Amino acid sequence: MYFTDRGIEELAQRRGEEEVAISWLAERLRDFVDLHPEFETPVERLATWLARLDDEDD
User: Fold this and answer.
1) What would the pLDDT profile of 20-31 be if each residue is shown by its tens digit?
2) CB 41 within 8 A of CB 29
3) CB proximity list for 33: less than 8 A, separation 6 or greater
4) What pTM did the predictor assign?
5) Span 3-32, average pLDDT
6) CA distances from 32 to 8, 23, 39, 49, 55 (A)
7) Distances (CA, A) of 21 to 10, 12, 39, 45
8) CA distance 18 to 24
9) Nearby residues of 47 by Cβ (< 8 Å), 6 or more positions away
10) What is the 3-state secondary structure (H, E, C) of the chain?
11) Which pLDDT score is estimated for 5?
12) What is d(CA 56, CA 19) in angstroms, rounded to the nearest whole number?
């Protein structure tokens, strides 16, 4: 288990039954990067990966 899995597990346990809009998620990611600019690159990569999940070229 990766260290980050603990955060993912906590997210699933605390919020696993909720439904959220992509716009809400995007705003939370922006808030996070504003507070923690050192994580801009990984957050950008995650957002890009999520945005392109359905692309058939990948």
Assistant:
1) 999 999 999 999
2) no
3) 39, 40, 43
4) 0.78
5) 91
6) 16, 14, 8, 17, 26
7) 20, 16, 22, 19
8) 12
9) 26, 29
10) CCHHHHHHHHHHHHHCCCCCCHHHHHHHHHHHHHHCHHHHHHHHHHHHHHHCCCCCCC
11) 86
12) 26
What is the spatial distance between Cα 22 and Cα 29, in angstroms, rounded to a whole number? 10
What is the rounded distance in angstroms from the CA atom of residue 37 to the CA atom of residue 56?
32
Alpha-carbon distance values, 2 to 7, 38, 41, 51 (Å): 10, 20, 19, 24
Confidence (pLDDT) at 58? 53
pLDDT band of residue 1 (cuts 50, 70, 90) is: low
Q: Which two tokens stand for residue 1?
A: 């288990």
